[in-house]
Amino acid sequence: MQHDRVVPYGDSAASKKAQVAQMFDNVAQRYDFLNHLLSLGIDRYWRWYAINQLKAIQPRTLLDVATGTGDLAIAALRLKPDHVTGIDISEGMLALGKQKVAQSNMSDKITLMYGDAENLTFSANSFDAITSSFGVRNFENLEKGLSELYRVLKPKGKIVIVEFTKPQIFPIKQLFAFYFRYILPLVGRLFSKDQQAYTYLPESVQAFPERTEFYGYFR
Fold it and tell me: Could you read off the pLDDT of 65-98 as tens digits, one per residue?
């Protein structure tokens, strides 16, 4: 599918997975700053909203996929789970996340570790809930990745995914397109040493399945 073919570095022979890991390693030091800046701070609300979707089931064990620097895993502690596990393929992002967890004295509640969403090492039915923010779009094989999430989710568990979609309402659609095509890559180039990372972002969003098509993966 088109989504699987969009990669950060078009001139590289490496797999999409390897390129995504390299990209996030490259931008790790500026990632949190740019995430807040480019979303105008709305990313904090999105994480709050995502975690609220799990209140009804009160998960005891939670897996955060593509955890990055751990912001959503940390936010999940509002649910008072027994433990949160965060996985990512970027060692650079994980290193920063582990610093956050240690500095906040949350190491007994949160474990951040290397993990590939398409080849999870956990047993079937391991988690009450699974979350992912802005990570599913980077899966090399979307169908395989989502299948793995379902495999490790307990019966009656819940998956919450935060991901970009393309607005369809005028004038939001046009403003969004302009911002993603021109503003976002420009700001990314100014503050990040990896210029292609913030060109890949709008390209990957453009190629990602529309909301109704994405819902089809969960039927």
Answer: 999 999 999 999 999 999 999 999 999 999 999 9
Dihedral of CA atoms 112, 192, 160, 100 in degrees, nearest 10, equals: 30
Fold of 2-166+197-218: Rossmann fold (3.40.50)
Query: Residues near 53 by Cβ (< 8 Å), separated by ≥ 6?
Result: 158, 160
Per-residue pLDDT tens digits for 134-158: 999 999 999 999 999 999 999 999 9
Cα–Cα distances (Å) from 200 to 20, 104, 134, 144, in that order, read 10, 32, 13, 22
Read off the tokens for 105: 């004295």
Q: Are strands 61-65 and 83-88 parallel, antiparallel or unpaired?
A: parallel
Q: What CA–CA distance (Å, rounded) separates 18 from 150?
A: 24
Check: CB of residue 119 under 8 Å from CB of residue 148: yes
Q: What secondary structure, in 3-state letters, does 101-148 show?
A: HHHCCCCCCEEEEECCCCCCCCCCCCEEEEEEECCHHHCCCHHHHHHH
112: number of Cβ within 10 Å: 28
What is the domain partition of the chain in residue ranges?
2-166+197-218
